[in-house]
Amino acid sequence: MIVKDVNQEREQWGSKVGFILAAAGSAVGLGNLWKFPYVAGKNGGGAFVLVYFIILFLVGFTLMLAEIALGRHTQLNAIGAYRKLREKWAFVGGLGVLAAFMLLSFYSVVGGWVINYVIKSVTGGLNVSDPEVLGNMFGEFVANRWTPIIYHAIFMLLTLLIVLGGVGGGIEKASKIMMPALFGFIILLAVRAVTLPGGIEGVKYLLVPDFSKINMEVILSALGQVFFSLSLGMGCMITYGSYLGKDTNIPESAVIIPLCDTAIALLAGLAVLPAVFAFGFEPAAGPGLIFVTLPAVFSQMPLGNLFAIMFFILVLFAALTSSISLLEVCVAYVVDEWGWNRKLTTWTLAGLIFAIGVPASLSMGPWADIHLLGDRGFFDTYDYIVSNWLLPLGGLLLCIFVGWIWGTDAAIKEVTNNGTLEFKLRGLWVFLIKYVGPVAILVVFVRSLT
Ligand code: PFF
Questions:
Q1: Is 179's C-beta closer than 6 angstroms to any atom of ligand 1?
Q2: ipTM, interface predicted TM-score of the complex
Q3: Which of 44, 84, 328, 419 is the most buried (most CB within 10 A)?
């Protein structure tokens, strides 16, 4: 159901569950299914997960609440929201829109790879048990000139078609179908992996912390992962919050969304790591884990082909519910601020983002020798600018803005629906947004640049 706000003609979520599923859909993405298992694998397993939890509570919940409150209060896109409250701060929203624009351009390239792997798994092309052969297959595919670009276009087109449907009819409806399916698939996969002979070693690796493994590197990786995984720091939750009615319970949403995100990340870890252990592979295999190691694991598993198909469809759904949120951040800005119609805006932006993504795809092969920042090609340069600069900067400025400029009293008034809702964690939240958030982010920011 699409509800229009009579006063502002702004579309709203059809239901509370719809909003939660869409926001959780934005959060749950390649970050959970592709990145979390290998980052956890690389950073000591349980030790990383423990630190991740602590940071999630300290920073994740705090910023999630701040972004949603800012969006719902202003009922505007990321730039408009800051501008409405303090003209000079509009640039922070601008950083967010730029980040979403850039992130989507290479996120969609990876989304394209996933579509190709869905097809490969369906046609039996992944039925190979030798990781070396699979590694070459993956390497040759991404280095190809045209094929990955065609898949990048298909992924962008799917994203565009959902966003064209609008907030209620497109994003909310798609999330309501894909998110429950995703939950179902990942639970099945995790149960399968955990019950494999030897799989329990993987569970231990993921859940039992070895405190000696906790160091600054692990903490930094966990903080970066929390940000990326929760879609924070680029105005995504501001935009989604702006389609909320005044009667929603923001504190509750700010707890449920990170919980869903973490549950999926953990389930992804449980689906991937025990299987990797059971078949004697390396948990620290890195970014190739789901494209190279996992197909090798599936090919040795009873009914493995079926699980491979399920897995890649799951990754595709997760990537799409995130990519639509990234496109929506940009679309909302142009529609709100420039007064363009939604259809024209969506096509134009999707076309531009696709074009910007093409060099990222080419940099995996034909343009591998073109270096932009240091020895980084296009793909790595985009990723570096977004992950190391725009996201932490956006998050830091968000903390300062809500904690000190807009002010925690105004934010709390919004969060408690003018004092009518109870907000038990109020004192803690104020402390976290004013002090802990900015300091923690600053430390990571400075460290990531050195
Ligand atoms: N949270 C998404 C993931 O984990 O894959 C990525 C993302 C989506 C980041 C949307 C930021 C964003 F605004």
A1: no
A2: 0.97
A3: 328
